[in-house]
Amino acid sequence: MNLECIDLSIGYRQPIAENINFTLAQGDFLCVLGANGTGKTTLIKTILGIMRPLAGEVLYDGQKEHCRIAYLPQHLNVQQEFPATVGEVVLSGMMVHHHGFFYGQKAKKKADDIMRSLNIRDLKKRSYKQLSGGQRQRVLLARALCADNELLVVDEPVNGLDAQAKEQMYAMLAKLHQEENMTIIMISHDVQQAIRYATHILDMQAPMMFLSKEHYIKNKQMEISSWA
Length: 228
Fold this sequence. Notes:
alpha/beta; six-stranded mixed beta sheet; 7 helices; 36% helix
């Protein structure tokens, strides 16, 4: 999916961030950086259609409305208490395509294929509550991908995970980007990992910058050298 933000102003009643302009082509990986309060999550909510922009517009493949976006929110403790198996949690992502809780063979096969691609197929019959934090995040990522596989939005996907689980999650996102040509938007506080995986950076810290990874690195190097 191609995504375009044009003269976007975001916030509740007063703008948190204004004049946001960027374009993502199919297969781009955008990392959104910035301190708390700069509007990262508000931007994501606006892209998802949860919030309306105060000004400007968001276009999805040139249209003002989108059908589906895969969304992995921040890790929440309440998610640990899903009273369901891994397979049931993943399949519930299909609810955007179906009415009710009955899924055909095509939907079940898609869920199985996604679980296999994320290396959690062997956990299908396990209780979600029994999983580690890293396993839960992969299950929730699989659930999100059942909703859509063109644009994936992830909000601090490694928050609360140990070092090994963080690497596994980043590896999963890199695989989706490189092998599936998926467009990804990721909120992160980790600049080093952003530079490692992203193709583009949106730095919400004033003055706001949208740059390719290469230009962002060059810009930061010039900024650091000016401190000497």
